[in-house]
Amino acid sequence: MKYKTDWNKKENIERSWYIVDVKDQILGRVSTKIASLLIGKGKVGIVPNVDCGDYVVVINSDEVKLTRGKELKKMYYRHSGFPGGLKEIVFADQIKKNSTKVIEMAVKNMLPKNKLRDGRMARLFVYKDSNHKQEGQKPVEYKI
């Protein structure tokens, strides 16, 4: 008698909706939980080459925290592609400018660097305050 392992196919994936409140949470700890939800690590039928993750809605991104005074030490870099085009911004200024980008960048860098990353990032929705557009999907609150 031969045993056969059933692998999930793209058509059989069931995706859930989760809402994560990051108010007064540490950025790194929250980002790892969000990344594991997007990958689908908590599911039984996870397949490494198929995107099995869920949808994640993040609220209150303005109020995420860092530890031990890193608000003034953590830098974000970008480059224009031209000589001398390196731009840098401190975490505290980036939170004031665009706090959603802080969480998106943290989660994106925690996901595996492969062809599935763009699809996973498309299922991440980040909002500055507690108002969001995904009430119709009835997201379940995810405690961290």
UniProtKB/TrEMBL annotation:
GO BP, sorted A to Z: negative regulation of translation; translation
UniProt-listed SUPFAM superfamilies: Ribosomal protein L13
Pfam families the UniProt entry points to: Ribosomal_L13 (PF00572)
Family: Belongs to the universal ribosomal protein uL13 family.
Source organism (scientific name): Candidatus Dojkabacteria bacterium
Record-linked PANTHER family: LARGE RIBOSOMAL SUBUNIT PROTEIN UL13M (PTHR11545:SF2), RIBOSOMAL PROTEIN L13 (PTHR11545)
Membrane-traversing stretches: none
GO cellular component: cytosolic large ribosomal subunit
Subunit and interaction comment: Part of the 50S ribosomal subunit.
Gene that encodes it: rplM
Gene3D superfamilies given in the database record: Ribosomal protein L13
Domain of life, per lineage: Bacteria
Entry keyword set: Ribonucleoprotein, Ribosomal protein
Biological role: This protein is one of the early assembly proteins of the 50S ribosomal subunit, although it is not seen to bind rRNA by itself. It is important during the early stages of 50S assembly.
Name of the protein described by the UniProt record: Large ribosomal subunit protein uL13
GO terms for MF: mRNA binding; structural constituent of ribosome
